[in-house]
Each structure stands twice: as C-alpha cells, then as structure tokens.
Amino acid sequence: MKKIDADKLLLWMATAYDDGSDDRYEKGKKDMKTMVEALIHQGHFDQNKTDGKLKPGDSIKHIEPKMKTYGIGVVLEISKSGERALIDWPNYEEEKLPWQPTRSYFRIDRLMLVGESESKETAE
User: Fold this and answer.
1) Is the pLDDT of residue 44 over 70?
2) Fewer CB within 10 Å, N or C, the chain?
3) How does DSSP classify residue 86?
C-alpha cells in the first residue's frame, strides 16, 4: 500500500479548479478521478517526497519504477542550483543489476526520502 500526504492532496483539490467557473467545475468533476490517479502514480502526493528538503546523508529512493534496482541511495551533496543531488547507490540489487551504479546527479523532484526502518531493512 502506498502512503500519501492527505494535506497535500486536499490542498491541491481545493486550488485545482478554484476560478469560480461552472463549466470548468463540471469538466473538473468528470476528470478529477483520472487526474488524481495520475498525480498519485507520479508521486505528487507521496508522504515522503522530498519537496527539495534533502541534505547530505539522507537515504533516498528514485521514484521511477525502472530505477528500483538501484535500491536505497545516499545523498552526498546538493547542487548549487538546489535542483539536483549527487547520489551514491551502495545498496543496489547485484543479482538484477550486473554493474555498480556510478555516483551521479539526479533531479531532486524524482527522489523520495526513505524512512529509518526501510533504510535499516535494506542494510541488513
């Protein structure tokens, strides 16, 4: 089960169609379920999404499914622009990824903080 941040979802829903237009409201009602599902799938409301608050030493995961084999990474530094983070991937899945991922910069909006319990499980 994927956890989401209810406050982020409610804030988005309150502001998404708040222009007072009845036509837009009606169209929004029809499209709301589809849009919310897409935004949830994209990680827009993820509870542990970084929101740009990463710091060196944080444990992260990449939100793209194809990056799952990289496992849990560690933030080494934040770029001067604040939009990317240098990540090391010491916990990659060796049986699924035959080469060790190199340290690289990744967009912060594509990274998700990992809780302490999840970090410990991977380390064991």
Assistant:
1) no
2) N
3) E
